[in-house]
Amino acid sequence: MKPGDKSAFEQLMRRFNRTLFRTARAILRDDAEAEDALQEAYLQAYQAIGGWREEAKLSTWLARIVANEALMRLRKQARRAEIVPLQSSATLEGLNEIPDTDMNKTPEREAQRVEMRRLLEAQIDSLPDDYRAVFMLRAVEELTVEETSKVLGIPEATVRSRLFRARSLLREGLASRMDLACEEAFAFAGERCDRIVANVMKRLG
User: Fold this and answer.
1) Which of 50, 80, 85, 183 is least surrounded, with the fewest CB atoms within 10 Å of its CB?
2) Looking at residues 14-36, what average pLDDT do you find?
């Protein structure tokens, strides 16, 4: 896309919003903070879009900007908190909506899904920061090892080892129920997508 093309940039945001929000959320563990980080990253990307090389994957380039912004905020939080552990009371939403079939409409089934989501989200949030970011990018967003390596700025071997460890930790907490709930964690609702796009477009004038 051409620098200064706000219409094209709006479409770009809507295309990558969910993936990039998840990237920020995986690092910051807070919905509101992740939204703020994503908006700031979009502004940075808008200013720097002329430097994007078309041979580089746009989603990876954007994810790297978002990750850098989120990591910077995390470091600031750590300095402010010093030895006080970072906590997040935000309730995560789930991943992808499962098919709306008659089987899934029963109150019992819905209650089961809600509980499974809650357990999975809590377990993912409890992962160490490094493992959580890798897990979200590889297992949830399905980025390649190479893409995840570029986004997080770590060696590919480290991506593989952290993903293996993250999966092991999740299995220990959720056992056989993890696969059932994984499809519903960290949803990206249309309302959040619209809010982020509207805020960025407003700041772009």
Assistant:
1) 85
2) 91
Listed residue (62, 52, 79, 53) closest to 24, CA to CA: 62
Residue 156 in this model has a pLDDT that exceeds 90: yes
**Domain of 181, in residue numbers:** 94-185
Q: Token pair 């982020």 is at which residue?
A: 196
More confident residue, 179 or 13: 13
Q: Is 204 left (phi over 0), alpha (psi -120 to 50) or beta?
A: alpha
| Residue 73 and residue 15 share a domain | yes
How would residue 184 be classed by pLDDT, with cut points 50, 70 and 90? low
Residue type present at position 137: L
Q: Which tokens hold the place of 28?
A: 């910051």
Per DSSP, the residues of 9-75 read HHHHHHHHHHHHHHHHHHHH--HHHHHHHHHHHHHHHHHHGGG--TTS-HHHHHHHHHHHHHHHHHH
How many CB atoms are located within 10 Å of the residue 152 CB?
24
Tokens of 97: 């909506």
Q: Which of 129-138, 144-153, 179-188 has the lowest mean pLDDT?
A: 179-188
Dig out the tokens for 198 from the structure: 């509207």
126 residue type, one letter: S
Q: Report which residue type is found at 155.
A: P
Residue 117 sits in a domain whose CATH number is: 1.10.10.10
